[in-house]
Fold this protein.
Amino acid sequence: MQELVNAVAEMMEEQAAALTKKYLAEGVAPLEILNAYKEALAIVGKRFEEGSYFVPELILAGEMMKHAAELIKPHMGDGKGASGAKKVGKFLLGTVEGDIHDIGKDMVHMLMEINGFEVRDLGVDVPAKRFCDEYRDFQPDIVGLSGLLTLSYDSMKAVVDGLKEIGVRDKVKVIIGGGQVDERACKYVEADAWVTDAVAGLKCALQWIEH
Amino acid sequence: MIVIGEKINGTRKQVAHAIQVRDADFIRDLAMRQYENGATYLDVNAGTLPQHEPEDMAWLVEIVQEAAPEAITCLDSANDKALRAGILKTAKTPMLNSLSGEQFRIDTVLPLAREFKTELIVLPLDDSGIPRTSDGRMDIVRRLVTLTREAGLPDEKLFIDPLVMAIATGTENGNITLETCRSIRAEFPAAHLTCGLSNISFGMPLRGVLNQAFMALLIQAGMDSVIINPDDRELRGIMMAAETLLGRDRHCMNFNRAFRAGKIGPKPTS
């Protein structure tokens, strides 16, 4: 299994797919294979933080994972879905109203899903009311608000105000993300945390879920 | 090339701090240096929280104008109140950054451009996002140029941005931008083309090298303006070299004069 971990971590796309097929044919438990991918992605994330991997490596790793999930799906047999096992938490995500940036948001979506979150992604330019409606329906543990414009801060604040209005602000963690967000924006929005890249967002979410 | 200096931007930490504590010297220095390094336009983005933005924008414009009276300000905001506050402080008609196909910008920015007869940066995106194809971007450009013409703005006042997306997130992103450049150049020859080129290298190592290569390709595709850090000596060298090589520099005089003035090439060691 270490061979698969290495293949994914070293960005050997074809080798990773071939090994996955081989293990599946040999009857290796799908969960074991998925764990190898997870381990590899942790290495990729670490290298990204250290500055030897960059955005393309994150994206390619995500694609390898997606492809593996497709290969594994027919072997899972039940309704649990390819990402296997039980979900660690629910994550409601979107780029706030007035903003249409999606690179960061999509990367967060991918990383959260890979790490066992059930993700509901509302897309871009999402009005505060829609976040609240979806909150009621989905009951997430965490709400992630993405935005790169300074105007986005008002839209983010509107979501937090909406969550207060429907009386759930203390039941949910709110994290804001974007290249420009900082402590001041976080205070203004009254979010619980702020991050400027997707890997940092994932770390923060995992910490919340563990405690 | 028409250079729009990007450094007075409140989303950069040092600038945000200077705005907060009203450090006029810091802003003045940024304005002067960019102008001296060849920026015709100076982008001014307060980048502050919306309720402070008009006041901050007005403060910035006043200082920039006093520091570099020959430069034209390029007022950069999605907030029409901030844009208006800036316009009212300018002596020279500013450029507005920007109009896009988003309805709120059509409703708020276009009337300002019409009222004050400003130059205008035009972005081919709309309420459903940035089209992933050159054809999709051209549809929006055509729609917006129809609107600006109806508003009485000649095409010469438009700086159309083909939009640059990170090569890290899509291998075709460079080609899409270049193809859009060529289409705009062919269909709207009187309009200018500009872009914030450093987006291309987002999420990549050696960003400077990628930016330099892309600069040369963009100029070949018809770009005649860029939003950059004018103090970037290497990028300036590549920019001037590309123009010279493409026959836009008679007898190579711009290039050679810039060399003699020490504006490009290795820094004089003294």
